[in-house]
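ugh ok so i messed up the first submission bc i forgot one of the chains. this is the corrected input, ALL of the components this time, i swear. 600 residues overall. if the numbers dont match what u have on ur side tell me asap before i send this to the collaborators (the ones from the other lab, u know who)
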Amino acid sequence: MGRPVSRGLAVTVDLPRLRAEVRVRPGSTVAVVGPNGAGKTTLVEAAAGTAPGRTSYDGEDWSGLPPYRRSVGMVFQEHLLFPHLDARDNVAFGLQARGVRRHGARRTAERWLSRIGLPDVARQRPAALSGGQAQRVALARALATQPRVLLLDEPFAALDVAAGAQLRLLLAAHLRDFEGVTLLVTHDAIDARALADEVVVLEHGTVAQVGTPAEIAEAPATAHAARLLGLNVLAAEEVVVPGHAPPGTLVTFAPSAVTLTVDEPAGSARNRWQGVVHTAVERDGIVRVHLRGAHDLYADVTPAAVDDLGLEPGRAAWASVKATEVTVLADGPT
Amino acid sequence: MVDAPPRLGPPPTRLVLAGAVAAAFLLLPLVALVVAAPWDRLWSIVSADSAREALWLSLWTSTIAAGLCLLAGLPLAWLLARVAFPGRRLVRALVTVPLVLPPVVAGVALLSAFGRTGMIGQPLREAFGTQIPYTTVAVILAHTFVALPFFVLSLEGALRATPLRLESAAATLGATRWTTFRRVTLPLAAPGLAAGLVLAWARSLGEFGATITFAGNYPGTTRTLPLDVYTALQADRDAAVALSLVLLVVCVLVLVTLRERWWGVR
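and heres the new structure output, hopefully the right one now
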């Protein structure tokens, strides 16, 4: 390689409680995950310029620049809309701050509100919006200035399941053809799996692991990463669940709830899928088996079971899970 | 919305009684003022040229003083609330001094600074031949000096109450600190700003000690309404009561017009 200039975003934080470096390639999304207090927020704040750290974008050193001279857009856990401005003026704020005249900024803001499906709230103040609407307006506000770096600090955390799912869809649609970089702080496996190209696991103030969501799910370096990214995620239509789950809903179950057998299971488990063992990685006395078939499934089994069943890569096996182990996660778009 | 307080039983009698005594103590003199007013002569006293002159002088000097508080106090309050400069605690302590200083001492201090031989007064007189003491300018300066701390402290509190996180959000949207101040901080602190202005204006309107010391008591130029009350008291007690009543009515009017802002939903 040996390129002198790295493309995309590079953020380095060097504090007593957090020493970490994160790189985001152009056009990609990196999810930063980790337990509370791991320094996830500090990292995005360093990228924004509101916390100390070194930042560069496409070889351009941003380290000494105040936030307002960086091309960033940020969405916070709380929407942080300006309470004295209506939704349209909130979205227009960044454009006006960057020199666009009020009339033009408002027209652009109205287009953004239409794009996020909320053309009717233009003249409403944030207090009149629902949590989900407010967070969508906050996303539009962050995107309206067309920043090269999009920073998302737990944007779904304060939303209920339905509102979170709606925002996630909106974000995924935007990220598909976004040419800048996105840094997403989350504690949610679904966000990381659905939105991120790469996951950075922060723990105890350092980077514990970097990899694609699949890589980390296959061989998590820490217990937290295992719990976070190890969940199986499927569409509701493909799974028998307790109660009712409307189409478009996502469901999850833990790898520890999955039973692996060589022959088709005959027990009471309602959900069963056939696949081929892709990987089997042992950590702390538990083997995580990645089964590939119609779906990617993860199962945690004991080393003894692996030996008994001969679960080596390439071996066909059945995975089954009881309907009562399945959790309904999110409503689809409404 | 305020939650209903938990039911803990009736309030203790001794606290209720002591509280009622305090409220009565505050209210009774005002009632006495109204009762003692010379209602038959009221209009002639209040509409006398000297009284109208004093009221008018009080109103406009207080308004200018409030304006000066805004011009000078707003930046100072912002600096105290937002910038961690060295000596900030000391500056805040100094701002509080005039708050507890006896007004007559404030007047003497102003004389020392702006008097004929004062630190600022002497060079000013030598350069421009201007004299500040015993002029209407002195009235305004005295008002501003005593009112500014009220304004700065109440506004600093309001500025501190506006969330810093919103300013971070504004910064990530490309707003400089000046834009953020103008478009986020100031509008959010507006109710506090209005309360601070009213407080400063009311404090100016009632100013007596610093004014009479620094500006004297000259009809037409420095005799504000409180000074007129004091002057009247020497000769005609009824007139003093009537003029006091005017001040009381102005104050009540201010409170009533601003009640929503001031003690509205907080």
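quick check: The longest strand of chain A covers residues 271-283. that seems consistent at least. Residues 161-176 of chain A form the longest helix (16 residues).
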